[in-house]
Amino acid sequence: MAASIPRSRCLLQSTSTRSLPHPRATRSCRRTFATTLDSSSNATPQSTNPTRTSTTFRDKINAGPSFSDFVSPNAPLSTAEAYEIRTAQVGPEGRKKTITRLPEWLKTPIPVNQNYKKIKSDLRGLGLHTVCEEARCPNISDCWGGSSKSAATATIMLMGDTCTRGCRFCSVKTSKAPPPLDIHEPENTAEALKRWGLGYVVLTAVDRDDLADGGARHWAETIMKIKQKAPAMLVEALTGDFDGDMEMVKLVAKSGLDVYAHNIETTEVLTPSVRDRRAKFRQSLEVLRTAKEVRPDLITKTSMMLGLGETEEQMWDALKELRKNNVDVVTFGQYMRPTKRHMPVHEYVTPATFELWRQRALDMGFLYCASGPLVRSSYKAGEAFIENVLKKRAAKRNGIVDDPLVGQTLKQI
């Protein structure tokens, strides 16, 4: 900031804005005014107040705390403190209401990692969409912020970023008539993933009820292209229900993928109030059962959200139905309200309860269960486990069992 301007000069400047002189006079006035300012900055100040040091707004921001300092706790909390549910009063006087504060175990850091920025730039340059961004996943900092792009996990979303359904929990854009499919997307996606060098990729897609096949052929073509360009890459497909057309489910299941995933999202009782009316609990079970019948070697996977108001009895019923239909992997995560337009959170489930359901799922015979407040359908640790299982199965088929300990593990798988 320049030195303070004497009052007489401020008055001169104010007066000049009220009566505009001839342009030449204006230029002359500006030169005179600038010269006066330079001379005044070198002259001895008339007042005793020290000259203020120049600064910028950016300096103040850089010197202060970062946004993540307000999100993540600085000191570890005890178990009792961490599990305590806090409330707050909001609203004007006389109409205040009590809301539940976000628990400490659900607070995640703001993405600042350089690798996160690189991946985001790559995806935009390739024209790819991710469910990580569209669904506002809280794990995006962890999954995209690995030591390298090859170690990162990003769930690629096919067929655009606009869904034809309107589930009450989902923040993905919706429309009855989304833009047409990009016919080059299967080829471009396969080429991009090949260059990225991933060992395991998760594909998902919006529901496209506006298409006769629900997008199944687009799905199949993309998976086949990936397998052609990168045969060793493992592909997990998190599909929709294709509006109950099991022939389309079979088409995708036979396309060469390694893991067939389809989410039931919640219990059967809550399904009508949580999911779009076209999404049905029994229909989702049939999708998973059909994929397994067509390809018995496929790993089938589903995911459920907790905190929607489900009861323990309803949870047991859902897990039993999944096992009846030979579902291999199940994940549990906390429902988190994307915006105020979406359904509210009924309950914040504690990490201890998530661990209890993980143990129960494994006791029921599931191959693997990832369970925790921040666990989502595409979960890095779960994908690492599944990748390991698939590689061991491949080694077993090829007769590559040199280590007796490995052989014992393969027998269990």
| Unreliable spans | 1-21, 25-45, 402-413
Give a quick account of the main beta sheet: strands, pairing sense, barrel closure. 8 strands, mixed
The CATH topology of the domain at 114-398 turns out to be TIM Barrel
Helix content: 40-55%
Overall spatial form: globular
Strand order of the largest sheet: 3-4-7-8-9-10-11-12
Strand content: 5-15%
- Order of secondary-structure elements: HHHHHEEHEHHEEEHEHEHEHHEHEHEHH
What's the N-to-C terminus distance? 71 Å
CATH homolog superfamily of the domain at 114-398:
Aldolase class I
Q: What oligomeric state do the depicted chains represent? A: single chain
Structural class: alpha/beta
Keywords: 4Fe-4S, Iron, Iron-sulfur, Metal-binding, Mitochondrion, S-adenosyl-L-methionine, Transferase
EC number: 2.8.1.8
Organism: Pleomassaria siparia CBS 279.74
Family: Belongs to the radical SAM superfamily. Lipoyl synthase family.
